[in-house]
């Protein structure tokens, strides 16, 4: 806390006016990092855009923030190590992560449902499975990039997303005619 106060050019007492403990300061730092990543996501396209364009935008936006998020993850993982020992901090972090992931998954599900209703996406599409898969692929790239910075590669992430959309969402031959290979 002494070092943080010195870097912030405030007294240690001032820090404690804003943060009850080191754990609360750590939690605030991690939460702000996650909120910052959410703010970096581009606004969705016009709601009247076709579902494939909307999905393309969602996934492209996630790929675009990969490098920024990956840069914060080494510190975030260290902070998580401290927070797991604090039940209140762990619960607050878990609630925030659930909110972030639920928002991303809901956007994906809504877009998939619209695409299915318009006949653009497969009729047998399982929205939850695809949304969970997209988030798992994203997380895999983020967490691997902590140990191997080469995985903070938006183009490689996008390629994985494109394969998922081509094969699971649009489906085989239709993907080529619908332009999903460029999604």
Would you give an account of this structure?
The protein has nine helices and no strands. By secondary structure, it is an all-alpha fold. The longest helix has 31 residues, at 87-117. The chain is elongated.
Write out key terms for the chains shown.
183 residues, mainly alpha, 77% helix, disordered C terminus
Number of strands: 0
Note the overall shape. elongated
**Main sheet: strands, sense, barrel:** none
- Mean pLDDT comes to 82
Distance between the termini: 47 Å
Rg calc? 19 Å
| Structure class | mainly alpha
Please give the count of helices: 9
In sequence order, what are the helices and strands, one letter per element? Answer: HHHHHHHHH
The protein's oligomeric status is single chain
**Into which percentage range does the β-strand content fall?**
under 5%
Helix content: over 70%
- Given as residue ranges, the uncertain stretches (5+ residues, pLDDT < 50) are 173-183
Provide the fold topology.
Elements: H1 2-8, H2 12-18, H3 22-40, H4 51-64, H5 66-83, H6 87-117, H7 127-147, H8 154-170, H9 172-178
In short:
The protein is mainly alpha-helical. It has helices spanning about 1-10, 10-20, 20-40, 50-65, 65-85, 85-115, 125-145, 155-170, 170-180.
